[in-house]
Automatic annotation (TrEMBL):
Residue intervals of the TIR domain: 72-208
This protein's record includes keyword Ligase: no
Transmembrane segments: none
Keyword terms: Receptor
Species for this entry: Cathartes aura
Taxonomic placement: Eukaryota, Metazoa, Chordata, Craniata, Vertebrata
Record protein name field: Toll/interleukin-1 receptor domain-containing adapter protein
Feature: compositional bias, Basic residues: 1-12
Molecular function as annotated in GO: Toll-like receptor 2 binding; Toll-like receptor 4 binding
Keyword Membrane recorded: no
One CC-aspect GO term: cytoplasm
């Protein structure tokens, strides 16, 4: 009877244990939030909070001469306002300095002089695997940024990792409604955000390479 009485009076898990169990479950869910998202007050369901899981395809496969990566001129097209150029140049320098040497399209650097702005924007979107949207107050005010965003969404309506929204100094209520079906990265710590962008681009290129390889088998 002693063991039965102890079983009946077995203490319930503490609130701390319950919280830990809940957080473990949430960490495997797409709706889990990062510390940056919490600090920003944004909805955890809208923030890209998880580190990207490694894919079985290696960086060597992505860099191989026959990789599907080389079917387009650029790995990443950076869509941004001119007022954010300094930050974007840091991001481009980071991505191009990675071991994979990501190929970035930066409008003020890579656009052909004398070409029409609309033509250059459309070509950059079509010839890039991924599009990073640096959404800042300047982006929201710039009609060309919105135009480029719409071009990217028209190119890949379901996104599938190709469109990567990055919010900086923008409230969740001002997040473009056209992108609200996509997870975003909230830029609180620049280094962490740069790494998340790199990992997201890497994952898409790995999936592209894997799909291409399986399709030829």
């Amino acid at each position: 009877s002693g063991w039965f009485r102890r079983l009946l009076h077995k203490p319930k898990p503490s609130s701390v244990e319950s919280s830990l169990n809940a957080s473990r479950s949430a960490s495997s869910s797409p709706s889990s939030s990062s510390s940056s998202a919490k600090n920003s007050g944004s909805s955890p369901a809208m923030s890209l909070a998880r580190s990207v899981r490694p894919s079985p395809v290696s960086a060597l496969d992505i860099n191989a001469s026959g990789s599907a990566r080389w079917a387009k001129s650029y790995d990443v097209c950076i869509c941004h306002s001119e007022v954010d150029l300094e930050l974007v140049e840091e991001l481009v320098s980071y991505l191009e300095g990675q071991p994979e040497s990501f190929r970035c399209f930066l409008q003020l650097r890579d656009a052909t002089p004398g070409s029409a702005v609309v033509t250059e924007l459309c070509d950059a979107v079509q010839n890039s695997h991924c599009w990073v949207m640096l959404i800042t107050p300047g982006f929201l005010r710039d009609p060309w940024c919105k135009y480029q965003m719409h071009q990217a969404l028209a190119e890949a309506p379901m996104a599938n990792g190709r469109t990567i929204p990055v919010l900086k100094d923008v409230d969740r209520k001002d997040y473009p409604k056209e992108l609200r079906n996509l997870y975003y990265i909230y830029m609180a710590l620049k280094e962490n955000s740069f790494r998340q962008i790199r990992d997201t681009v890497m994952r898409y290129l790995q999936e592209l390479c894997r799909s291409s390889t399986s399709g030829t088998e």
